[in-house]
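Project outcomes to date are best conveyed with an example. Our students and postdoctoral researchers have been running inverse folding experiments weekly, and each run begins with a structure described purely in tokens. The record below, which covers 431 residues, was selected by the lab manager from last quarter's runs and is presented without edits.
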């Protein structure tokens, strides 16, 4: 197991691989691992990536006490020390247990691991921003961004939530069952589940379950979807018989939720610049019994593929490409791949996509703009710039008051407040 963890971590940290893809490749090779061991490998890799910033700070501080440095050690030893430090700082294991699991290679540095077990002895960086970044395991630029926009205390709470494993949440497919019927069928299969707090369609698994092996999944009775993502679809207010456009559909999670709301009646157009992502939607739609949809690969250089929809759509959803800062629980490696410059590149593109697809909305129609980012430049500022440049649109209530998130035109979903991934939702209406 130790070998698999370090192999995956090395591929992600040194080679820039995505953690989910590196994990899949490694586990396909390690056929001898049992399911419980595979789960442990996954938990260790993702946990180590989430706490990487804090682990490196603690190790560096501990090694400095004897005038040593992490980067001077051989790479395998560095990673083994990180693994041992993670077991102590992240999993609350004893030093002896951590050394035993990490292997004899770390035994010469047991003294450093003993210091990590008592981090108060190591102190904190003098610079407040560096201290915040080390404490929260965030890159310095990200700690700066959120401390400026949310404040240091809110940043700490947000980071604490992002450093936990995300809950497993699914959406009941209303074309095949109600949420109550789905819960009953899942419990009959032995799953521990509860209804979500905010989404009227959501179900959360409270135990570890391979949902893709369940009969209910194979029958198309639910789709895996974060509760916040479900609320984006709910904000669209799609109804049977309407013309609805999902502008950045990707693999179609929200497209399927919209089809469920439309009861398979009307016209649902899933657009994306990547036709391969749309291909992933086809088997999912068949399993879910969705048949009122069509896919359109729309290049960014031309509107020809959507020209016929101009001024005809009742609802347009623009779930725009974004930095993904709200989904770091699920993609912990992303915080180390992203940088401030890349995050700053998204708003111009988001404004362009929003303006482009807004032309499809008919008079009285609804436009929903959403991201899975926690960043004003990608969220409020994009919405404000759009409304200033397009006076034919006005703010509209984003979600029903019954959801319990207020009745304003914008909704901010935050992991530490709502238990969802981080999302921004804004609703507008064409006059």
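After processing, the design step wrote out the following sequence:
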């Amino acid at each position: 197991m130790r070998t698999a963890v370090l192999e995956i971590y090395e591929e992600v940290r040194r080679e820039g691989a995505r953690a989910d893809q590196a994990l899949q490749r490694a586990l396909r090779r390690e056929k001898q691992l049992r399911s419980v061991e595979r789960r442990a490998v996954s938990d260790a890799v993702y946990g180590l990536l989430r706490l990487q910033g804090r682990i490196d700070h603690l190790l560096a501080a501990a090694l400095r006490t004897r005038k040593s440095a992490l980067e001077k050690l051989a790479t395998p030893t560095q990673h083994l020390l990180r693994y041992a430090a993670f077991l102590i700082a992240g999993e609350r294991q004893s030093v002896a247990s951590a050394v035993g699991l990490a292997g004899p290679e770390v035994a010469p540095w047991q003294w450093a691991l003993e210091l990590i077990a008592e981090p108060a002895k190591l102190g904190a960086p003098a610079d407040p921003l560096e201290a915040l970044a080390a404490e929260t395991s965030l890159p310095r630029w990200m700690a700066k961004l959120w401390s400026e926009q949310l404040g240091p205390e809110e940043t700490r709470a947000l980071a604490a939530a992002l450093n936990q494993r995300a809950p497993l949440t699914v959406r009941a497919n209303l074309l095949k069952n109600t949420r109550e019927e789905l819960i009953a069928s899942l419990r009959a299969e032995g799953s521990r589940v509860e209804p979500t707090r905010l989404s009227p369609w959501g179900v959360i698994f409270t135990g570890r379950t391979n949902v893709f092996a369940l009969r209910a999944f194979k029958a198309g009775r639910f789709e895996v979807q974060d509760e916040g993502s479900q609320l984006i679809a709910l904000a669209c207010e799609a109804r049977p018989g309407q013309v609805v456009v999902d502008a950045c559909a990707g693999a179609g999670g929200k497209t399927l939720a919209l089809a469920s709301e439309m009861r398979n009646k009307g016209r649902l157009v899933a657009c994306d610049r990547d036709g391969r992502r749309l291909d992933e939607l086809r088997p999912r739609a068949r399993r879910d019994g969705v048949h009122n949809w069509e896919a359109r690969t729309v290049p960014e250089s031309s509107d020809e593929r959507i020209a016929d929809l101009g001024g005809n759509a009742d609802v347009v959803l623009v779930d725009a490409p974004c930095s993904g800062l709200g989904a770091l629980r699920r993609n912990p490696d992303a915080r180390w791949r992203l940088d401030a410059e890349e995050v700053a590149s998204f708003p111009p593109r988001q404004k362009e996509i929003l303006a482009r697809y807004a032309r499809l909305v008919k008079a009285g129609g609804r436009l929903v703009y959403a991201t899975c980012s926690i960043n004003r430049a990608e969220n409020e500022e994009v919405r404000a710039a759009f409304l200033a440049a397009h006076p034919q649109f006005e703010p509209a209530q984003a979600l029903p008051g019954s959801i319990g998130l207020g009745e304003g035109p914008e909704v901010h979903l935050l992991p530490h407040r709502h238990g969802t991934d981080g999302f921004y939702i804004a609703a507008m209406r064409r006059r």
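Residues 35-50 form the longest helix (16 residues). The chain has a mean pLDDT of 95. The training component of this project remains on track.
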